Structure formats: C-alpha cells, structure tokens
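Let's practice the habit of predicting before peeking. Look at the sequence and jot down your guess about where helices and strands might fall. Then scroll down.
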Amino acid sequence: MTETTPGWLSPDELESTRARMPILYVDAVPVRVDDTGVVTHVGLLLRIGSDGTVSRALVSGRVLHHERVRDALMRHLEKDLGPTALPRVPASPQPFTIAEYFPTQGVTPYHDPRQHAVSLAYVVPVAGDCRPRQDALDLVWFTPEEASSPIAQQEMTGGQGVLLKQALAHVGRLS
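Done guessing? Here is the structure:
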C-alpha cells in the first residue's frame, strides 16, 4: 500500500527505523487552570493497549518528518482530546523535561518495548470541551493530588506516571 501523506512511514519502514535510531515524540499533560493560572485538574486518557490491558495515559505521539514540534503537539492534542479542546500552546513552546524511553527496562524510568524514543514533554492548559477520539476511551479530570496518588500512578505504564509527577512538580502542584 502506498502512503500519500508526507512524513508517514509504512508499518514496515517504521519498524525498521525504530530498530535503528531514536524516534522524536511529544508528550502533553493536559491541565485545567484557574483565573490565576494555578493548575486545578489534570486530564488523563483511558486507553486499551494492544495486549488488551486498560491504562491511564498522557497525550503522546510522534513528530513527523518536516513537522514543527508545536504543530505535532497541536495535532496530537486534537487527535486525543477532540477539535473543541482549545489547547493553549504558546507560539514557541518550551518543554518542562525531555524523557528518553528505552526498549530495555531500567535504563531510565521510561520504557517503550518497541523502540528508543526521545520525547519533549509539555504541560498544556486546555479551556474547551474535551471529547476523546482515536484509541482513547475516555478522558478523566483528576485533581493534582488524585493524579499523583499511588492508585493513579499504578494505572500508568511505561514511566508516564513519573513524567506526570515531574509535570506536577514543574507547575508547583506536587505535594
């Protein structure tokens, strides 16, 4: 099958590339903020993995060839949260951290069995109505305390719970 969208690799090309080099990703932590800019809630997606397990997840995805990082962030936020989420991504976004996912567990807190991936991680305020799409079943808004609880952390895989805690610390909401 021929792919006509620029920047996309065929499944075989992607698998081959993943085996040879790191892939660039973006991770986004969707948040609700009050009038003073304080984070009041964190949005976590509910997903079913390829193995049938249910987990909580951040918005995440690849940056395409010849795609600006900001555009990749917006694309994945719209894909996962819906077109009326109204994310407020600045013109020149700055990541709060860089997460390096390895196929071998234990190298970093982040693990992706498919590949070595480098992800730029952002906290993104959203003001609109979020309606999960694609492979997300639901989006649930948690208080920062609920999101950092052991129960919520256990529901996240691949080190995304660690990334979420870093995001909450970055915005001054980790207790």
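How did you do? The first helix runs from residue 11 to 18.
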